[in-house]
Amino acid sequence: MSDTEQPGEHPDDISRNARYGLGLFAVYVALYAGFISLAVFSPEKLAAPAVGGVNLAIVYGFTLIVAALLLALVYMVLCRRTTR
Fold first, then answer.
1. By the 8 A CB rule, do 10 and 82 touch?
2. Most buried in the list 2, 33, 39, 60, measured by CB within 10 Å?
3. Cβ of 31: how many Cβ atoms within 10 Å?
4. Alpha-carbon distance 63 to 2, whole Å?
């Protein structure tokens, strides 16, 4: 690492972190695509009660929010490591 280079700025670190980000983004897109697919092709399933009388749309929506936060935490942990 050079004198001007900060931790995490090494090209290998940047490439690795970008791969992690894209992979986690793909996971979230798959979850979101499932939600959208249900909304388009089977809206009656989203209207059905799921947990405690709350419909599946609300439960799935909150699950997406929690999943986004968890994926962000995973990304943060993965990106803390450096190659040097």
1. yes
2. 60
3. 16
4. 43
Quick one: pLDDT at residue 11?
85
47, 57 Cβ separation under 8 angstroms: yes
pLDDT single digits (tens) 51-80: 899 999 999 999 999 999 999 999 999 998
Q: Residue 84: pLDDT band by 50, 70, 90 thresholds?
A: low
Alpha helices in the chain (DSSP H): 11-41, 43-47, 56-80
**Two tokens at 54?**
């709350």
**pTM of the entire predicted model:** 0.80
Partners of 54 in the β-ladder: 51
Cα angle 39, 27, 81; round to 5: 155
Do the strands 54-55 and 49-51 form a parallel or antiparallel pair, or are they unpaired? antiparallel
DSSP state of 12: H
